[in-house]
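Risk mitigation, structural track. In case the binding assays with iron/sulfur cluster fail to produce interpretable data, a predicted complex structure has been prepared as a fallback.
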Amino acid sequence: MPVPVSQMWTVASYVLKQRFQGRRRYPLVLMLEPLFRCNLACAGCGKIQYPAHILKANLSPEECFRAVDECGAPMVSIPGGEPLMQARFAARLFAAAKGMGVHTAIETNGFYGGRLSDAELADIDLVILDMKGFSPEQHKRVTAGIDNSEVFEFARRLAALKRPMWLRYVLVPGLTDVDEEIAQVAAFGASLGVVERAEILPFHQMGRFKWEKLGLEYTLASTTPPSDDVVANALGIFRAAGLNAF
Ligand code: SF4
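Fallback model:
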C-alpha cells in the first residue's frame, strides 16, 4: 500500500530505525482480514468466493490486537470483504491500533459508513473507498442490484469531516469502462476536496478459479483484462478532473 503524505514522517522514522538496527527485511503494512464476507456481490469479485465455513469464520478482537502488536508495522489496513459489516469490531480495532501509535486504513465499499460515529472515523487515518459507478443504474449493474446512495452520503460525510480518502475504481471491459461513468466518479471525487489519490485497478482473471470451484456462474469468463490504452484513457479522465491518478 503506498503511503499518504500525512503518514510519511512516521513511516520514514520507522524505516530509519529498522536500518539503524541492521534489519534488511521488515513489515511496513499489516493487512488484516478479520472476515471475508461482503454485503455486495460484484461481478467477477475474487475476494468473497469461499465455502460457507470460511465465510463464517472470524478472527477475535484479541487475535487482531495481538497481530498488530507482534507485527510491529507502522500501519494496519483492513481490507475485505466489507469490514464495516462488523463495524463495532472495526471501530475497536482501529481505536486499539491508534492507542499503539499505529496508522490505520480501511478499504470499504462505503455502504455501511453510517455505522461509524464521527469519533470512530477520527481513528481511521485513511479511507480507501471502492466506487463501482456513479449512476444508480450502473452501480446496480455491477453489484447485482444494490443502490449507491449510502456510498455518496458516506463520501460527503468524510469530506465534511476532512478525513483523507483515496478512490478506487475497478476497470472491467464491457462493464465499467464507460467514459461517462468514469468521468462522473472522477468529478465527484474531485469535488470532495479530500481525495489524495485515485487508483484504477485493471480487471484480471485471478479469481476465476474460485467461482468455478464453488460451481457458481461466472459471468466474466470471456472478459479480458483492459488494454494499456483503455487503462490510460481512464487515468486520463481522472487526471482531467484534477485528481492524482495511478
Ligand atoms: S465490494 Fe469488493 S469484496 Fe465486496 S463483492 Fe464487491 S469487489 Fe467483492
